[in-house]
Amino acid sequence: MKKIAIACDHAGFEYKEYLKNQLSSQYEIQDFGTNSLDSVDYPDFVHPAATSVENGENELGILICGSGQGVQLTANKHQKIRCALCWMPELGSLARKHNNCNMVAIPARFIAKELALEIVEKFLETPFEGGRHEKRVEKISCV
Predict the structure, then answer these.
(1) Which residues form the active site (predicted)?
(2) How many Å from the N-terminal Cα to the C-terminal Cα in the chain?
(3) Is 75 strand, coil or helix?
(4) Active site residue 98
(5) Is residue 65 annotated as part of the catalytic site, yes or no?
(6) Domains plus CATH for the chain?
């Protein structure tokens, strides 16, 4: 069973709980918080989730905040993370297929929960295509 990290801020809390509920029968999910609607700082939850993907504790990760931007920017500070902000299922699929992204960022204030689930499912089930994309992905890292 694939191991998945999930984290959010207060704006993404309800989506995180919904996604966990919908995905828990297919994936082993490690929840990095937050655990309420109380206002929090998203980096406090994103950094541990991203670290768990970087070090192989989790294979992929799901991040949620109001716009998706904050969590994506934070995750992408990690050298081995490629996090894509996705608002439609095709982007979730392409993020994996062409960019080998290992985390997805969801904008909770701009899409319905059901659409978020579709995006995440596409992201989680799509393999990296490799081939011509491999050398491009290798050039993303600065180190």
Answers:
(1) 65 (proton acceptor), 98 (proton donor)
(2) 31
(3) helix
(4) yes
(5) yes
(6) 3-138 (3.40.1400.10)
